[in-house]
Design brief:
The structure is a homodimer. Chain A has about 325 residues and is of the alpha/beta class. Chain A is built from 13 helices and 14 strands.
Chain lengths: ~325, ~325
């Protein structure tokens, strides 16, 4: 029987592994906890980029070229908003805006954000549980050489050009974890961390009180897939952000960012020389091709990761 | 110098005369008071059909074929909402939805609805003042053989098929008139009522406390253009609604619905035999071609109406 798998995932990279796992696991055995700290309101609509990327990927509706947004999008609403004098640097497609309108309406009606995410996923035919770490406000803020920016301002408007000096998760201290996310961690047979940005995709999930502790005390093997290949990210600013946070921009830096939370790390074959250093830190290591360019590669990496994780020895927590 | 003109107007028919007036008047001499009682929230967005029809018409962006909505519309957002399980009987185009998103955001920020309407009009290049009768909630409710319906439910979803028994303007008693609408009535040299539905387009404007009284005590000549041609409406259910309200479905019925509020009535040449009956009621009458199928016809009717209204004798108010 397939083990119960819980995956922590960010946007584009996380969604790729989520797709791979979804291709090989029965939906009821897989739970995915996504990142909500990139959420931002645009034009009064609540936009949840990482959750939407996961949803659209799992529903096979994603724009494969860009890795986010819906395939075959148009931008008529955005053009209309621009005509009315609105700032339209955040690219929002027309079909995508339907999701934001739907989400915003339900939020205003008081529906829990995690129930909304699950309802959207179900409407789009997704059987896997798509969970939010918290239903409370949680916002990544980035201090740069241009001052404090909301994450999407840094990421989309400024195209990651400002130098990052500090990352803060606003609301983290007060946020409550969702019971579904805690349960998915507590009951998991395998805990996985997707090849996502450790600093702004995974860290905000871990910043929700109770989530980190639940992972620490879980008895399941815990395995992360490194988002770095040859010291670089496939997409996004994870490399620069690791450096900014004082980690090495390497697999040992990724491992350090997950200290106490993982037993094993999957790294790319190109980085096989990192194995010794990682093992010296007490980590179990698997090397394989981690670049996922098609569903077959996603499923193969998922399969190999599951086999590796199942065989992983749970490192004793220091207590 | 062009007189100061204030027009009370509903949607499609009203917008045609508004266009005609706008074509021949300097923008600062023309004020249009639109109908907000057809407004309704869809998918959490505030939709204002009559105001949008006026705006899009005056901005020359209207879909000329259907008389409402924007030209060259697509419906991607609506398709997205349908996929998420939403009821999508209210046709909302993508560019149009930009207007609703913009309006909703500003309303939630506490901006006065009339300031929003004016701002949208200005963004679309309209110089004329587009005024709302009230900034307060005002909703046309229609009692039919199927029970009470919101106006758009009756008009769009049920396509005016249910038999109308009663019309109620919810919120009218508590609504405050906007100072701009009152001022436009009080300072007008000519007061016009567009060829709109007297029962559900003009009556809700008049139902706002203070508006009817301001028209009654104005010293300006007051002229309505009948929406009926040969006892029928060009579009919409005005004929059936007049009957339902106990008025005759004729120009005398239209005149009766405006009793005490107009000095003159413009009727179609085809109805010239109505003149005697109308004059017997103390009304001054002009007959002309009132069907407006192109801008030239709109401008001609506007021009003739202004000439007629300027020559109209103000009937003494009964006090």
């Amino acid at each position: 029987m397939t083990p119960r798998i819980t995956l922590l995932a960010g946007g584009v990279g996380g969604a790729k592994l989520a797709e791979g796992l979804s291709a090989i696991c029965p939906p009821e055995r897989l739970s995915i906890i996504g990142n909500v700290a990139d959420d931002q309101e645009f034009h009064g609509l609540w936009v949840s980029p990482d959750i939407d990327t996961l949803t659209y990927s799992l529903a096979d509706l994603i724009d494969r070229q860009q890795g986010w947004g819906l395939a075959g999008e148009s931008h008529r609403v955005l053009a209309g908003l621009e005509r009315l004098g609105c700032d339209t640097w955040m690219s929002l497609g027309d079909q995508d805006i339907a999701t934001h309108i739907f989400r915003t309406q339900l939020r205003r009606q008081g529906v829990r954000p995690s129930a909304i995410a699950q309802s959207i996923a179900e409407s789009l035919g997704i059987g896997t549980k798509l969970l939010l770490p918290t239903d409370d406000p949680l916002q990544t803020r980035v201090r740069t050489d241009q001052g404090w920016l909301a994450f999407q301002e840094y990421f989309v408007r400024e195209r990651c050009r400002p130098e990052v000096r500090e990352v803060h998760f606003e609301g983290a201290t007060e946020a409550c974890p969702t019971p579904e996310a805690l349960e998915a961690i507590e009951t998991a047979d395998l805990l996985l961390i997707a090849p996502s940005n450790p600093v702004v995709s995974i860290a905000p999930i871990l910043a929700v009180p109770g989530i980190r502790h639940a992972i620490e005390k879980s008895l399941a093997p815990r395995v992360a897939i490194s988002p770095l290949i040859g010291g670089c990210t496939v997409k996004g600013p994870a490399d620069r952000m690791l450096t900014a946070m004082g980690y090495r921009c390497s697999n040992t830096g990724v491992a350090a960012s997950y200290a106490g939370l993982i037993d094993g790390l999957v790294i790319d074959s190109i980085d096989r020389t990192d194995r010794t250093a990682l093992e010296a830190e007490g980590l179990q290591v698997m090397t394989t091709d981690t670049l996922m360019t098609c569903l077959e590669e996603k499923a193969r990496l998922a399969e190999e990761t599951l086999a590796f994780a199942s065989a992983c020895r749970r490192v004793e927590a220091e207590t």
